[in-house]
Design goal:
heterodimer; A: about 375 residues; alpha+beta; Butyryl-Coa Dehydrogenase, subunit A, domain 1; Butyryl-CoA Dehydrogenase, subunit A, domain 2; Butyryl-CoA Dehydrogenase, subunit A, domain 3; 3 domains; four-stranded mixed beta sheet; four-stranded antiparallel beta sheet; 12 helices; about 15% strand; B: about 90 residues; mainly alpha; Non-ribosomal Peptide Synthetase Peptidyl Carrier Protein, Chain A; 4 helices; about 50% helix; about 0% strand; globular; binds flavin-adenine dinucleotide; AcylCoA_DH/ox_N (chain A); oxidoreductase (chain A); FAD (chain A)
């Protein structure tokens, strides 16, 4: 099934998933069969060798109907990207095909009580015990945490940042569902406690010291790209709702769209959405070229995507009036989900700092390297 | 410029230039431990790997992830030289 047919097939159900706070379990095999999971992996690992632009378009289509579905693709892609880049041959062979097939659902467990934007403050420990390591700590806000069969967990081993794969059925893994969040309500969010969970040392990804700067960074870089595209799809869906409503709704004998005030809002929303889409396309192109600036330009795309999603969804609710506040109206859900996008994968403020830093040095001498 | 023609000293100089720019214009020394001093964020760490790969025509693999290869500009340059020597056909074993 191509992504357009897939989103059409679920469009009528997604509001119910949001209300119920979860995705149906059959969705994972359906999405895997559609080739939407870890689709940019090479074919030898079960992927579709999809280009970054094509991956982005899938995320935009999903984001235009349900951010929880896009979130599933994002997290699966993040963990797959980290393993493809920094896993050993054995780890890649063991895990990657299962991520593409949906045989494993990944969770990304980085955030802690004391470590949000500043992951360096994390206190989860990973201690060596012979051929095993023991993981102890509590991770918060894990998307798909209730569905995940394996977590990529970040902690410290002898003080150094490490990344370790922890299967969810290991003794000591405790899943605490998060009920009623503001947005991404169907994304099965959970806090996860790791109570002295023993896993083979072979589950460590990359040597100690590289857990955050390389493993997490590679994963989050990939996640930012798919979130950015998902935001573009969300913003475009909101613009479409706003256009359809204001073109039909008549008050005081005038179509809403015939007010200049309304048209100006539609115009600005168009520019925000279209601009974000172009920045995403630019980032996708740089990623395909393996350009060194791809990481920074992906931050730019995610920042612009989240900003467009937040502003256009807010405009859509305003233009739809009470209709947009109704329980089953999509802009109601898009508005709540869009706010989340300015917090996750690098908050708006952290993005601004990173982009400002990039601006400072790209005008400088690094152009020679 | 052909990457094969980049001389050993050029490698160190170019890495120092990138690191200095990445760390807000700090004049870094060849043996300064920019990681321990927390001068590089994770976006820059990923970028540094890609830059070194693209600029010097090598591939950084998981087996190369050794803090000793990356701590200082001088060590990165040594690492690049080793990788390039290992990849050059005339110096390959057997
Ligand atoms: C729905 C949802 C899903 C999530 N999924 C995952 C997941 O799957 N895995 C995971 O590990 N985490 C996940 N998270 C957590 C998310 O990554 C964090 O919320 C995010 O990193 C921000 O951290 P924080 O919430 O602790 O906010 P803080 O870091 O405490 O920030 C709070 C506010 O302060 C601002 N701020 C922080 N630092 C600075 C600064 N230097 N300068 C200026 N302003 C600053 C921020 O921009 C923000 O507005 C999820 C969160 C949500 C809401």
């Amino acid at each position: 099934m191509d992504v357009a047919s897939f989103v059409d097939s679920v469009r009528a159900d997604v509001a119910g998933w949001d209300r119920a706070g979860g995705l149906p379990s059959a969705i994972v095999p359906t999405m895997a069969t559609g080739g939407f999971l870890a689709a940019d992996l090479p074919r030898r690992y079960g992927g579709a060798d999809l280009g970054q632009r094509d991956l982005g378009e899938i995320c935009a289509s999903l984001g235009g109907v349900c951010s929880a579905l896009r979130s599933l693709v994002t997290v699966q892609g993040m963990v797959a990207a980290a393993l493809l880049r920094w896993g050993t041959g054995a780890q890649r062979a063991a895990w990657l095909p299962t991520l593409a097939s949906g045989g494993n659902i990944a969770g990304f467990a980085a955030t802690e009580e004391g470590a949000g934007s500043d992951l360096g403050a994390m206190s989860t420990t990973v201690q060596g015990h012979g051929d095993d390591v023991v993981v102890r700590g509590r991770k918060l806000w894990v998307s798909l945490g209730r569905l995940a069969t394996v977590f990529l967990v970040f902690g410290r081993q002898d003080g150094l940042p490490v990344a370790v794969l922890v299967e969810s059925d290991r003794p000591g893994v405790v899943v605490e569902p998060i009920a009623d969040p503001l947005g991404l309500r169907a994304a099965q969010l959970a806090n996860i406690r790791f109570e002295d969970v023993r896993v083979p040392a072979a589950n460590l990804v990359a040597p100690a010291g590289f857990g955050l700067s390389h493993v997490a960074a590679t994963a989050v870089d990939h996640g930012r790209h798919t979130v950015a595209w998902g935001c573009v799809g969300l913003a475009a869906a909101c613009l479409e709702q706003a256009v359809q409503h204001t073109a039909r709704r008549v008050q005081g004998g005038v179509r809403l769209a015939d007010h200049q005030l309304v048209r100006a809002v539609l115009g600005r929303a168009y520019v925000a959405t279209s601009g974000a889409r172009q920045l995403c396309a630019h980032a996708a192109r740089l990623r395909e070229q393996r350009s060194p600036s791809a990481t920074a330009e992906t931050v730019v795309a995610k920042y612009a995507g989240a900003a467009a999603a937040a502003s256009v969804s807010q405009d859509a609710v305003q233009l739809l009036g009470a209709a947009g506040c109704g329980p089953d109206n999509p802009v109601n859900r898009f508005f709540r989900d869009a706010k989340i996008m300015q917090i996750i994968e690098g908050s708006r403020e952290v993005g601004e700092l990173d982009i400002g830093e990039f601006a400072l040095r790209t005008a400088g001498p690094d152009r020679t390297l | 410029m052909d990457i094969r023609q980049v001389s050993g000293d050029d490698i160190t100089r170019q890495i120092l230039e990138f690191l200095s720019a990445a760390t807000g214009g700090t004049a870094l020394a060849e043996d300064q431990d920019y990681i321990a001093e927390g001068l590089v964020n994770s976006i820059q760490a990923v970028e540094l790997v890609t830059r070194v790969e693209q600029r010097f025509g090598i591939e950084v693999e998981v087996s190369d992830l050794d803090l000793d290869n990356f701590r200082t500009a001088g060590r990165i340059a040594d690492f690049v030289r080793r990788k390039r020597a290992a990849a050059a056909p005339d110096t390959r074993d057997g």
